[in-house]
Automatic annotation (TrEMBL):
Family: Belongs to the binding-protein-dependent transport system permease family.
Membrane topology, from the record: Multi-pass membrane protein
Organism lineage: Bacteria, Bacillati, Bacillota, Bacilli, Bacillales
Domain ABC transmembrane type-1: 68-257
UniProt entry keywords in alphabetical sequence: Cell membrane, Membrane, Transmembrane, Transmembrane helix, Transport
GO CC annotations, alphabetized: plasma membrane
Pfam families assigned: BPD_transp_1, OppC_N
UniProt entry tagged with the keyword Signal: no
Protein name: ABC transporter, permease protein
Transmembrane segment boundaries: 7-28, 72-96, 117-140, 173-193, 200-218, 238-260
Biological process annotations from GO: transmembrane transport
Species in which this protein is naturally found: Aneurinibacillus aneurinilyticus ATCC 12856
Amino acid sequence: MIGKGKAGAFAAGCLGLIVFVSLCAPWISPYDPNQIDMSNRLMSLSAAHWMGTDQLGRDVYSRILYGGRVSLLLSGVATVSTLLVGFCIGVLGGYFRGKVDTCLQTIVHIFQGVPGLTMMLAIVGVLGPSLKSLFLAIVLTSWADFSRVVRGEVMKIQVEPYIEGTRVLGASAFYIMIVHIIPSIAGTVLVLLTIRMSRTLLMIASLSFLGLGVQPPTPDWSVMLNDARPFLRTQPHLMLAPGICITAVSLSFQIIGDTLRDRLDPKRMQRVEDIA
């Protein structure tokens, strides 16, 4: 059985390779990903086209190389933005408590009371399919979960004796949050970030697959999945290639998040070592 450390290292290596290949796509791609060649449409795997061609004669391998750029960039920016919104609200509510916390938690409960997928579909439907509307939909439907976790961590830390001592010595709330509280919850935030990246990538893939996210002819894995549906039986590799890429990236982020959670929680690691 593979240990968590080895699994995390393998996942990090796999993710790093995919990111590197996506960034270097303009230099290593053998064809233009949007180059149409109807005379060579739906070709099988060959020396000229390693992963065949799609219904428009575009090289699938080249589109796979380019396909990760939009998904990875959008999921990264959306996740970080979501984290920033939820982090700020969670820290403020957890530290100040009272009326401030009550007001912020009311907003959090409102957003959590609406099904996330329903809200995302509504936002994208009103604003129209585009990267901007997809980004906004992800941020608005995801920040509340971050906020609740951060709030709980801050509430536990701020009652620690060293925080009380710092407050008695006259330190300002801003100083305590920046110097003591935020560094103390950095590990939890990092774990949340990696795990949320996996979920965000799947959200983007789902909406783009439905035609509500990334729009053709942009080379994107989820768009490639949608385009390949009519040819599943005759050309299954058209769906397998982008599907494997999405699965690999999503699992890599999930495994990295689980590994970080174990490494950054000494008590949990001690219990695991005792059982072993």
